[in-house]
Amino acid sequence: MQVIRHVHDVRLAGIDLNLLTSLDAVLETQNLTVAAKRLGLTQPAVSHALKRLRELLGDPILVRTKRGMTPTPRALELRPAVRDALAAAAAVLQAAPAFDPATSQRTFAISTPDQAAFQILPPLANRLVDAPGIRVDVRPYQTERITEALASDLDLAIGVFRDVPAGIREELLWKEAFVCVVRRGSPAARGPFDLARYVSLRHLLLSPRGVPGSPVDDLLARRGHARVIALMVPHFLVAPHVVAATDLVWTAPSRLARAFAEQVPLTIREVPFDVAGFSVVMRWHVRLDRDPGLAWLRETLRSIS
User: What is the C-alpha end-to-end distance of the chain, expressed in Å?
Assistant: First the structure.
């Protein structure tokens, strides 16, 4: 019965893998002096390497005959495997191939909420005209699974996050502030817009998770105020159309609101109290930290944000 030994039985940690290059040169040249010149070593150094190989393999490897140094059957058997091992090592150690977006056929998987997607996907799609073989798949945005997905099959996540888990890299794309959005021509679009008027109006609340409350409501509560939420929706893209058809007020991210105001009859008003904004970032896993393709995608997103 043949016994298959685990790779660790060979005790690779204690072996100088340069011995494989010496073995390959010796088997090819069958001459220690010529092998030494090819390797850039001295002849005694190659002789020492051959001695160690004989001890490790339990085989003479080369024996002296009338025709010179002749490989043993064991040595001839090993030569293809030695060549394969050296080629594999070279592939592992070589520099990462350059990434050319003009010729790449890569597919990138990203995840982003509709708020950020609305702002980045149109300019990103325009950039892909010069990278016709590249495809971007936008996957559903599930914050509770982002870290797990980045560790497996997701290339990039864009959104608003809290702490940074181990193994995750993060980079700022843009900072966001809040503004108030009202229908163009509505009473709230004219006249003073102070805190008293703000809380007297009816509001639309954007809640991606479908949970009542928000940092704005928490801030108002600490000041002894409350606003009336008439409608709560989970998606950013429906909010401007609802506001444009009603007298509701939407306290919205500034960049998104101003983009919608160019397409929908809306008026932008400043929030009548201090409220902190937030940061939109892109995240990726350390497994892709040196990936040239992802580096290109991140640079592209930075330039269009």
Answer: 65
**Angular region, 148: left φ>0, alpha ψ -120 to 50, beta rest:** alpha
38: Cβ contacts below 8 Å, ≥ 6 apart: 25, 29
| 96 pLDDT more than 70 | no
Q: Which of 76, 86, 82, 124 lies closest to 302, judged by CA?
A: 124
Alpha carbons 183 and 267: distance in angstroms, whole number: 6
Domains of the chain: residue spans and CATH:
7-93 (1.10.10.10), 107-170+284-304 (3.40.190.10), 178-276 (3.40.190.10)
Strand ranges of the sheet holding 156-159, from the earlier edge strand across to the other edge: 135-139, 107-111, 156-159, 278-285, 168-176
Can you give the pLDDT at residue 273?
A: 95
| Strand pairing report for 178-183 and 62-65 | unpaired
- Please say whether the beta carbons of 23 and 53 come within 8 A: yes
275: tokens are: 């409220």
Against a cut of 0.70, is the pTM above it? no
Q: Are 232 and 212 in contact (CB under 8 A)?
A: yes
Residue 140 phi/psi, 5° resolution?
Answer: -55, 145
* Minimum mean pLDDT range among 48-62, 171-185, 186-200, 229-243: 48-62
| DSSP category for residue 191 | S
Structure tokens at 282: 């892109």
Enclosing H/E stretch for 181:
strand 178-183
Question: CA-based diameter of the chain, in Å?
Answer: 109
Long-range contacts of 159-165, Cβ-Cβ distance < 8 Å, separation of 24 or more: 159/111, 159/112, 159/113, 159/116, 159/280, 159/281, 159/283, 160/278, 160/279, 160/280, 160/281, 161/281, 161/283, 164/283
Question: Would you tell me the crossing angle of helices 18-29 and 32-39 to the nearest 10 degrees?
Answer: 130
Structure confidence at residue 1 (pLDDT): 37
**CA–CA distance, 101 with 158 (Å, rounded to integer):** 21
